[in-house]
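The record is given unchanged here:
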Amino acid sequence: MRVLIAGESWTIHSIHQKGFDSFTTTDYAEGVKWLRNALVANDHIVDYQPAHVASRDFPATVEELSKYDCVILSDIGANTLSLHPETFTRSQVLPNRLGALHDYVLRGGGLVMIGGWMTFQGIEGKARYRGTPVEKVLPVRMREGDDRIEAPQGLAVKLEMATHEIVQNIEGEWPLLLGLNEVERGADAQLIASAGSFPLLLAGQFGKGRSVAFTSDCAPHWAPPEFVEWKHFERLWNQIVVWSSNGDSSKSAAS
């Protein structure tokens, strides 16, 4: 299967103040490696667009999106996808990429949204997917404003639908998670797992397509080392992608 991952990157701009004098440094980082490695290990073809690349190059039409069996959005805000640089700087009229994602799912595509400070609603509500076409094809409804739940004490995961294909052969206790985005279960959505008292893993059918919401992260800090190095991490993400793509998880699940 061919998968597009968009997001999971950031630039850090630091100010160093040393008495009277100061200077700045800039660094760039990505958190995609655990997710990408898990999918590649299961023979998926993965195209990755960091946030600054996705702002310009993310597919703009259903036809362009249709080359992918599944599209994953992780820690990338709605503005990055809806405000193409040519629209923002030159007022150029271009397709609504959030609308294209919505139509892609209805026509049979798979969509996965992974939580973080810049997905769902995110920090200070800046991810702002609430009310967008993308929310209409996700198995959740988003709250207003900042939806982050920070849980340094850890959130225990509980399976609500242990027989669901996404969690087949994932046995035993899950590692604790350190936070998530607080959402409400959407109408007709399947609540597969919760973390603490919050929905964690949800799935739904929309038109001919399917979507999955994983409200915590696939990388630190909400996903601590114990989670990204968990023996079932690879299986979980493979089965999420396979299910959302309308495939058969038993054909390619990791052992």
In short: The domain at 2-9+31-251 is CATH 3.40.50.880 (Rossmann fold).
